[in-house]
Design brief:
Number of helices: 6
Structural class: alpha+beta
Helix content: 25-40%
Strand order of the largest sheet: 1-10-9-6-7
CATH architecture of the largest domain: 4-Layer Sandwich
Shape: globular
CATH class of the largest domain: Alpha Beta
CATH topology of the largest domain: Phosphatase 2c, domain 1
Distance between the termini: 5 Å
C-alpha cells in the first residue's frame, strides 16, 4: 500500500486536533471534538486525546492479526479511557472525543470502519467513487437545531436557544437513537459503520476529516468524482489548499477554518 498524508491546523494559535498515521497495510484518521473551555473536565485536552487514541490504534493495527476493526477500536478506546479516568471527568458529555476512520488491506480485502462524520472514498475500478460516512451525527445535529429556525442571529434569544440545542445534542451522544463517537465508552466501537471490499475491485481509497470534506460541502468546489481526480493528479495537499482558499475568500458559505486532514492510499495489494 502506498500512502500519502497531509494534515493542516485550522488556526496557527491552536494545536491540530486531527490525527493521521499509517502502518504497513492500514491507515488511521481521527477528527477531535470537544467543548471549548472544558479544561476543568479534562486537563489533557482534545489534541492529547486524538493523538493518544490514534497512536494506540496504529499500535494494534501494526500487529496485523486480522482482528475485527471494531474490536481494535474498542480496545484502544478502553486503553485511553483508563489512562485519564483517575484525573479527568471523562464521562461528562463535553470531555474530549473523536471521530474515527480506519482502512486496512488484509488478505485480499479492504476492511473499513467509520464512527461519526469523517469520510471514506473508495475509488472503484469499475464505476464512480463510492462515498461512505456515518450520517447519524449530522442527522442528530439537524434535528436538535430545529428550534433555531426563524430566531434572529446575534440576539440574546438566539444565544439562549443555541445553548439549549447544544445541551440536547450532547445528551444524544453515544445513546441509542442518537449518534456514536469515540470517547470513554468502548461499546461505541460496535456501533460504527463497517464494511469490506475486495482489493481487486479498488484502485485506491481516501480518508477525509470533516474539515477536508468541505471541498464538496458546503463550498461546492468539486464533487466526489472530482475529489478522486484531484487526489490522483495532485495528491491530498491540493484538497486542503483549495479548502483553505475558499475559507480565505470570505464568500457567503465561508466558515471558520477547521483542521483538515486527508489520507490517500493506492497500490492497495502491494
Amino acid at each position: 500500500m502506498h500512502v500519502s498524508l497531509v494534515t493542516s491546523a485550522g488556526r496557527a494559535d491552536r494545536r491540530n486536533e486531527d490525527f493521521v498515521g499509517a502502518v504497513p497495510g492500514a491507515v488511521v484518521l481521527l477528527d477531535g471534538a470537544g467543548i471549548p473551555g472544558a479544561e476543568s473536565l479534562c486537563r489533557h485536552g482534545v489534541a492529547w486525546y486524538t493523538h493518544r487514541l490514534g497512536g494506540a490504534l496504529l499500535g494494534h493495527l501494526s500487529a496485523d492479526d486480522g482482528r475485527d476493526l471494531a474490536a481494535v477500536l474498542a480496545t484502544a478506546i478502553d486503553e485511553i479511557a483508563a489512562a485519564h479516568r483517575d484525573t479527568c471527568d471523562i464521562a461528562d458529555p463535553s470531555s474530549p472525543q473523536a471521530t474515527v476512520a480506519l482502512a486496512r488491506a488484509h488478505r485480499g480485502r479492504l476492511d473499513y470502519l467509520l464512527l461519526a462524520d469523517s469520510f471514506l472514498v473508495l475509488d472503484q475500478a469499475h464505476g464512480g467513487p463510492q462515498v461512505i460516512t456515518d450520517e447519524r451525527e449530522v442527522t442528530a445535529r439537524r434535528d436538535c437545531s430545529a428550534p433555531l429556525a426563524g430566531v434572529a442571529r446575534g440576539t440574546p434569544e438566539y444565544d439562549r436557544v443555541r445553548a439549549s440545542c447544544a445541551r440536547v445534542l450532547r445528551a444524544r451522544r453515544n445513546r441509542p437513537g442518537g449518534y456514536w463517537i469515540a470517547k470513554d465508552d468502548p461499546r461505541a466501537a460496535w456501533e460504527a459503520v463497517t464494511g469490506s471490499r475486495s482489493l481487486a475491485d479498488l484502485n485506491g481509497v481516501a480518508l477525509l476529516s470533516n474539515g477536508a470534506s468541505r471541498i464538496v460541502s458546503p463550498y461546492g468546489l468539486t464533487d466526489w468524482p472530482g475529489v478522486r481526480d484531484v487526489l490522483a493528479t495532485h495528491g491530498p495537499s491540493e484538497v486542503v489548499r483549495r479548502v483553505r482558499q475558499a475559507e480565505a475568500g470570505g464568500g457567503p458559505d465561508a466558515q471558520s477554518p477547521d483542521d483538515a486532514t486527508v489520507a490517500y492510499c493506492t497500490h492497495l495489494s502491494r
